[in-house]
């Protein structure tokens, strides 16, 4: 096992997943990559309620995206500062898009051997209505997925 991917969303579960991935990496001499994904809400969300934000949305999209990437980078750095990753290669990346799609694409493109990710513990009803990034990754990943509960 050479490469481990860890999706991070700032939750307690994703922090625990990062710790678990580091532990595994130390045992196998693996490298670890932390990934977080930013996704701007679409204007369709607001149009459903009769609010037209298209012009404002597109005018400020670059600034909003830049700020989100900055904040997510800070979050990743903060988490990295709490990890004991001596003697392993640790990298991070911030991507834009739909979280599960970006995680799956990255894992396949960079040929990761394992994905370690957290699960927040939504109820069955909450997962039904809002979906679950973890569930989508488990269903479609090309490699094993280790799920760490909150």
TrEMBL record:
Gene3D superfamilies: HUPs
Key word Iron present: no
Keywords from the named record: Cytoplasm
The UniProt record lists the keyword Cytoplasm: yes
Residue ranges constituting the UspA domain according to the UniProt record: 1-148
Taxonomic superkingdom: Bacteria
Annotated compartments: Cytoplasm
Family: Belongs to the universal stress protein A family.
PANTHER family: STRESS RESPONSE PROTEIN NHAX, UNIVERSAL STRESS PROTEIN UP12
Protein name: Universal stress protein
Organism (species): Sedimentibacter acidaminivorans
């Amino acid at each position: 096992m050479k490469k481990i991917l860890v999706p991070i969303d700032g939750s307690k579960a994703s922090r625990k997943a990062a710790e678990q991935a580091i532990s595994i990496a130390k045992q196998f001499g693996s490298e670890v990559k932390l990934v977080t994904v930013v996704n701007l809400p679409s204007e369709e969300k607001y149009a459903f309620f009769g609010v037209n934000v298209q012009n404002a949305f597109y005018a400020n999209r670059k600034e909003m995206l830049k700020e989100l990437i900055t904040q997510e980078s800070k979050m990743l750095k903060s988490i990295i500062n709490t990890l004991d990753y001596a003697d392993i290669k640790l990298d991070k990346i911030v991507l834009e898009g739909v979280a599960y799609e970006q995680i799956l694409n990255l894992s396949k493109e960079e040929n990761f051997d394992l994905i370690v990710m957290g699960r927040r513990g939504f109820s069955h009803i909450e997962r039904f209505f809002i979906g679950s990034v973890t569930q989508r990754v488990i269903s479609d990943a090309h490699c094993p997925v280790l799920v760490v509960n909150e």
